[in-house]
Amino acid sequence: MFSSVILNAVSVQKNWFPSFISFLFLLLFASCKTTFTPVAASYKDYSITAQQIKDTLLQNEMQPYRDSVLKNMSEVVGIAANKLERKRPEGSLGNFVVDAIYNKAKEKFNFPIDIAILNDDGLRIDQIAAGNITKWDIYNVMPFENLMVAQKIKGDVLQQFLDLIAADKGWPVAGMTMQIKEGKAVNVLIGGKPLDIKKTYMVVNSDYIANGGKNAVMLKSIPQLTSGYLLRDAIFDYIKDNGKVITSKEENRVTYAQ
Asked: Whole-model pTM above 0.85?
């Protein structure tokens, strides 16, 4: 009887002790916070060339999607009556795109639009050849998801903005003309009238520039109006509105003062 009690006690201790130790370890590690501090970073470049072994299984899986995208993006959406070129201070490609933004803005916003301005660097290709215009062409011109926005800009702030544009050798504009002299915007005409620094103008732009992109910090604090309309969609819609035939040329909107 006595020996049986001892054996049972030993048995209980053997079962209890490992569990108790495990509990202590869990409690200890759960209460610890480990912090890792990087001390070095390294990388290695791997070149992908035509000599690489191709994964035919993956290629076969992706082929239907590739074919679908190519077919969709190769769709002809319009015709360029002449070659459209990106140039500074003014080019026919920039005029085409900014005219699309200016005209569609008049429809999208329920108030008059004075001018439209487009960041020249937002045009990502230098030309569209005369002939068919495909979806590829429009996406290549405007690959970003930039929104069309309108801002009420006071004349003195607008002058600062136009001076920034002049210092950058000119951007596409619509509804206005200007000249560049010693990196400043001069002889600015809006709707055929000289810029009035005391007047407020409704200016259409991209959300990127309105948020201070390209050093346009003078615009950041100005409220923005938008309908969620993409600049790229404005181009597509403008082409449709013009019977799918686009004619654009340089019109001395932005020139250098003599």
From this structure: no
Pairing of strands 184-190, 193-194: antiparallel
How far is 98 from 86, CA to CA, in rounded Å?
Answer: 12
**Domains, the chain, ordered by start:** 70-245 (3.90.780.10)
- Token pair listed for 212: 């201070």
- If pLDDT is split at 50, 70 and 90, which confidence band does 32 have? low
Per-residue pLDDT tens over the stretch 82-91: 999 999 999 9
What sign does the dihedral 208-173-140-243 (CA atoms) show? positive
Token readout for 113 is: 């639009």
What separation, in Å, do the N-terminal and C-terminal C-alpha atoms of the chain show? 120
184-221 burial string, b = 16+ CB within 10 Å, else e? ebeebebeeeebeeeeebbbbbbbbbbeebbebebbee
CA separation for the pair 125, 99 (Å, rounded):
17
Helix (H, G, I), strand (E, B) or coil at 5: helix
26 vs 19: CA distance, rounded Å: 11
